[in-house]
Automatic annotation (TrEMBL), chain A:
It comes from Glycomyces niveus. This is Uncharacterized protein. The lineage of its organism: Bacteria, Bacillati, Actinomycetota, Actinomycetes, Glycomycetales.
From TrEMBL, chain B:
Residues 578-593 have a biased composition (Polar residues). Keywords: Coiled coil. This is DUF1023 domain-containing protein. It comes from Glycomyces niveus. Residues 372-541 form the DUF1023 domain. Residues 577-615 are annotated as: Disordered. SUPFAM superfamilies: alpha/beta-Hydrolases. The keyword Zinc-finger does not apply. InterPro entries: AB_hydrolase_fold, DUF1023. Residues 318-348 form a coiled coil. The keyword NADP does not apply.
Length: 123, 615
C-alpha cells in the first residue's frame, strides 16, 4: 500500500463510508441472487422445450451472480473492511490483509461472516 | 444446439422470456443507482478529502471509482447488452415464428396432413385417411375445389368417374400442397433454431473471456493494480477484434449497443487504428463503416501494388516454360485484376480531391459498407445513407456478379434503382444498396447449385439486422430486391435464417429455395415477383416454384421485355437478353420521368411504400 506523507482522518465519516459500502454490498448481492433465481425459473420451461437458450440462460444468471455482481460485492466488502480497520486504528495500514479486519470484526461488525474473509488468499 | 420441436415452439411462453429481459433492464437501472451512490455518498461524501486525506485515502477513492467503473461496464456489456437484449431478441424471434405456426398448423390439420420426421427436417405428408379418401374416390371437398371437380355423392355417376380420371391430379395437388406446408414448416423451424442457437451463443460467449476485475486492497495490491489498469486500456480493442472476427456471439443490435456505449475517442481510435474491425461490421453506423472501409480500400490497393511488384520480380527469375511460371503468372494476373477492380471502385465512390463522391443520377453520397477480393469478390455499396433514409432498398445481384461489376454495371443498375426511387418517391429519401456480399456463381451451371445461397444466407441475415440496428428514428421501409440467382440468395436467407425486411422483390427468379411465399417469413402480401414474357429464366425454375406462379402465393407485377435479337434468326438472343432488361428504359425517346418503364416504376412503388400503384 502507498505510504502516508500527509494524514488526516475523521474516523466517524470513514465508518459511514464503510456502512454505505457494506449496505450496497448486501443489496447488490441479494438483487443478483434474485436475478439468478429468475433466470433459473425461466430457464426451466426453456430447457423442457429443448432450446439451446435454456441451459445458457441458467448458466448466465449464475455466472453473473457469482463472478460479476459477486465480484463487485467482493470488492466493496474488501474496501469496506480495509476502511473499517483504518478507522478503528485511525492510522494508515501499510500491510493490510483480511486478517487485519477479521481480528476487529467480532466487536465492530459481528454480523459480517469472518468465513468470507478467511477464504481469501491473503488471509 | 437447438432441438426444439414444433410443439415446443407452439407452446413456448414467449411473454415470460420477454418479461425476464425487461427485468434485467430494470435490474441494470437499479444497480446503476448503487454506483451513483458510491460516487456521491462515498467518494465525494463521507470519504472526501475533507474527511480523509492521505496517499492511501486517494488510492482507496480510486479503488472505489474503479470498482464502480467496472460494474457499470459489466452492467452495460453483460447484464444489458448480453443478457437483457438477448432475451428480448429471442422472445421477438420465437414469437414471430410461433405466430407462423398458429397459422400453419391448423391448415395442416384441416387438410388431413401429418407432420413426420425429426425436428431438424420435418416432412408433411398425406395422412392415411386422406390417402384412403382419394383411393376410394371420396376426396375431401377442399381437394375437389382445388382440382375443379365436383365431389362425388357416393354413387357411380359421372362425377365419380371424373374423380377417378383425375385421381392423379388429385394426388398431385394434395402432395403439392403438403409440400408447400412442409417448406413453410421447415422454414419456420429453421429460423426458430437459428434464433435459439444465436441467443445461446451470445450468452455462452459472454462467459468465455470475461474482463478482469480490479484487484482487492491488500499486500499484493500495488503489484496487481497497474496490470489491471493496463488491461482496461486494451479491453475495447479486444472486444472490437472479437466482434470483427465473429467470435463475440453478439447480434448486430448488440454490436450497436456496444458501439454506442463507447466514448467518442474510443470509437475514433478504432476507426483510425483498426479500420478492419469497424468497416465490415454490421451494427456499426454506416458513416463510421464508410470511413473505415475507405481507409481499408486504399490500404488494400497499396498492398496489391506491392504484391504485384514482388510477383513480377519473382517471375523474372523463373523459366517461362515452367509450370511454376504459369502458376505465378496466373496469380499475377489475378492480383492485377483485383487492383484494377478496387481502383475502379475507389474512383467511382471518391472525388478527385479525395472526398466521398455522390451518384450522378441522384446526388446522394456513396457509402462503402464492405469489400473483399476472395472468390468472385464482394462489395457492399450504398447510394444514400441507410441509417437516415425513409426507405432502404438492397439489390442482390445474381450469376456472374463480381468485383468488376461493383464499380460498373451492377452499381449502375443500383444507381438506376436509386434514381427511380427518387423520381417516384414523393420526396422521401431512399438509400439503395448494392449488396454483393456473397460469392455469386460464375456460370449458369454453377447457378444450379444452391450452395452459393446457403453460404451467403447468414451474411445477408446479418446485413438486414445491421440496417435495422443502426437506423436513426423510425424504422425504414426496407426492401430486398433480388435478380436472377440473387432471388435464390434472398429466398434462402429469408427462409433459413430470417431477414429483417418488409418487402421482398424477386425479379427474374429461378426459384427461391421454397415453394411458397409463406415460407419466407415476411407477409405474403409484401412478396413481389416479376418475370417478363421473353425471359429465358421462365423455362428453368431450378430452385423451387417460380415465384411468379399463382401457387407460390405472392404478388406479381408487370415487366416489359424491350430487348430484341440482333438478327431475326438469332432466336435465342431475345430470351437471354430479356433476362437482364428489367432496368432498361423501355422507350429511350421518352424522358425517364414520364413513367414508361413499367418494371422500374413498379419496383420503385414497392420500395417507396406505394404498393397501390403497382401494375
Amino acid at each position: 500500500m502507498a505510504g502516508a506523507d500527509v494524514f488526516a482522518m475523521d474516523p466517524d465519516e470513514v465508518r459511514k463510508s464503510v456502512d454505505v459500502l457494506f449496505e450496497i454490498e448486501a443489496e447488490a448481492d441479494t438483487q443478483a441472487a434474485a436475478m439468478a433465481t429468475a433466470n433459473a425459473e425461466a430457464a426451466g420451461p426453456l430447457k423442457e422445450a429443448a432450446t439451446a437458450l435454456g441451459p445458457a440462460l441458467e448458466a448466465a444468471g449464475e455466472w453473473w451472480r457469482v463472478h460479476r455482481a459477486g465480484g463487485f460485492c467482493g470488492l466493496l466488502g474488501n474496501t469496506g473492511e480495509y476502511l473499517a480497520a483504518c478507522a478503528e486504528q485511525a492510522v494508515e495500514i501499510d500491510d493490510y490483509n483480511a486478517g487485519t479486519f477479521a481480528s476487529l470484526a467480532g466487536e465492530l461488525y459481528p454480523e459480517r461472516p469472518n468465513a468470507n474473509a478467511s477464504s481469501r488468499p491473503d488471509w | 444446439m437447438s432441438e426444439m420441436t414444433w410443439e415446443h415452439l407452439r407452446d413456448l411462453d414467449c411473454g415470460a422470456v420477454r418479461t425476464l429481459g425487461e427485468s434485467w433492464k430494470t435490474y441494470v437501472d437499479q444497480q446503476l443507482a448503487h454506483t451513483e451512490r458510491l460516487r456521491t455518498d462515498v467518494i465525494d461524501g463521507h470519504l472526501s478529502v475533507e474527511n480523509y486525506e492521505s496517499d492511501t485515502a486517494t488510492q482507496v477513492r480510486d479503488q472505489i471509482g474503479m470498482t464502480a467503473d467496472r460494474y457499470e461496464d459489466d452492467l452495460s456489456d453483460y447484464a444489458s447488452t448480453r443478457i437483457a437484449t438477448t432475451l428480448l431478441e429471442a422472445a421477438d424471434a420465437f414469437e414471430k415464428e410461433q405466430n407462423e405456426l398458429k397459422e400453419l398448423i391448423p391448415l395442416i390439420e384441416q387438410h388431413d396432413f401429418d407432420i413426420e420426421g425429426p425436428h431438424s427436417e420435418y416432412d408433411v405428408n398425406l395422412s392415411g385417411d386422406l390417402h384412403q379418401a382419394i383411393l376410394t374416390l371420396n376426396p375431401p371437398q377442399w381437394l375437389c375445389d382445388m382440382c375443379g371437380v365436383k365431389k362425388p355423392d357416393g354413387f357411380w355417376d359421372w362425377d365419380t368417374l371424373k374423380v377417378l380420371f383425375d385421381s392423379v391430379d388429385l394426388y398431385g395437388t394434395a402432395i403439392g400442397l403438403a409440400g408447400q406446408y412442409q417448406d413453410w414448416l421447415r422454414s419456420v423451424m429453421s429460423r426458430a433454431h437459428d434464433a435459439d442457437d444465436e441467443a445461446a451463443a451470445a450468452l455462452s460467449e459472454m462467459r468465455e473471456n470475461p474482463t478482469e476485475l480490479p484487484p482487492h486492497l491488500g499486500e499484493t495490491y500495488d503489484d496487481l493494480v497497474d496490470d489491471y489498469k493496463e488491461g482496461v486500456t486494451e479491453e475495447v480493442a479486444n472486444e472490437a477484434q472479437a466482434i470483427a472476427d465473429g467470435t463475440s456471439g453478439l447480434s448486430p443490435e448488440q454490436v450497436n449497443q456496444w458501439w454506442e456505449n463507447l466514448s467518442e475517442s474510443e470509437r475514433q481510435a478504432l476507426i483510425d487504428e483498426h479500420p478492419e474491425w469497424v468497416g465490415p461490421v454490421d451494427g456499426i453506423p454506416v458513416e463510421s463503416r464508410d470511413t473505415a472501409n475507405r481507409t481499408l480500400l486504399g490500404n488494400e490497393i497499396d498492398s496489391l501494388a506491392d504484391r504485384i511488384t514482388a510477383k513480377e520480380q519473382a517471375l523474372q527469375g523463373m523459366d517461362p516454360e515452367s509450370e511454376e511460371y504459369e502458376k505465378a503468372k496466373a496469380e499475377l494476373d489475378d492480383l492485377k485484376q483485383d487492383r484494377t477492380d478496387l481502383a475502379n471502385l475507389q474512383d467511382k465512390i471518391t472525388n478527385d480531391d479525395g472526398t466521398p463522391a455522390a451518384s450522378s443520377q441522384t446526388g446522394q453520397d456513396y457509402f462503402l459498407l464492405g469489400f473483399d477480393t476472395e472468390g468472385s469478390g464482394k462489395a457492399i455499396v450504398s447510394i444514400g445513407n441507410p441509417d437516415t433514409a425513409d426507405n432502404v432498398n438492397a439489390y442482390v445481384p445474381g450469376t456472374g456478379s463480381n468485383l468488376s461489376g461493383a464499380s460498373a454495371g451492377l452499381l449502375n443498375r443500383a444507381d438506376t434503382m436509386a434514381f427511380d426511387a427518387q423520381r417516384l418517391g414523393g420526396g422521401d429519401e431512399t438509400a439503395t444498396v448494392l449488396w454483393m456480399g456473397y460469392d455469386a456463381p460464375d456460370t449458369l451451371i454453377e447457378a444450379t447449385d444452391d450452395k452459393w445461397a446457403n453460404e451467403g444466407a447468414d451474411d445477408l441475415e446479418s446485413f438486414t439486422q445491421g440496417i435495422r440496428a443502426t437506423a436513426e428514428g423510425e424504422p425504414s421501409n426496407f426492401s430486398l430486391t433480388g435478380h436472377s440467382y440473387g432471388t435464390t440468395m434472398v429466398g434462402t436467407a429469408a427462409a433459413q435464417e430470417g431477414v429483417e425486411a418488409d418487402n421482398l422483390i424477386l425479379v427474374a427468379s429461378p426459384g427461391t429455395s421454397v415453394d411458397t411465399a409463406s415460407a419466407l417469413g415476411v407477409d405474403e402480401e409484401r412478396v413481389w415477383a416479376s418475370t417478363n414474357d421473353e425471359d429465358v429464366i421462365q423455362y428453368g425454375p431450378v430452385h423451387g416454384e417460380a415465384p411468379v406462379n399463382e401457387e407460390f402465393g405472392g404478388n406479381t407485377f408487370t415487366s416489359d421485355s424491350p430487348r430484341e435479337s440482333s438478327e431475326w434468326w438469332k432466336f435465342w438472343e431475345g430470351p437471354m437478353e430479356n433476362h437482364s432488361s428489367y432496368w432498361d428504359q423501355d422507350d429511350p425517346s421518352t424522358p425517364a420521368n414520364e413513367g414508361n418503364d413499367i418494371s422500374r416504376d413498379n419496383q420503385a412503388y414497392v420500395v417507396t411504400g406505394q404498393e397501390g400503384r403497382v401494375r
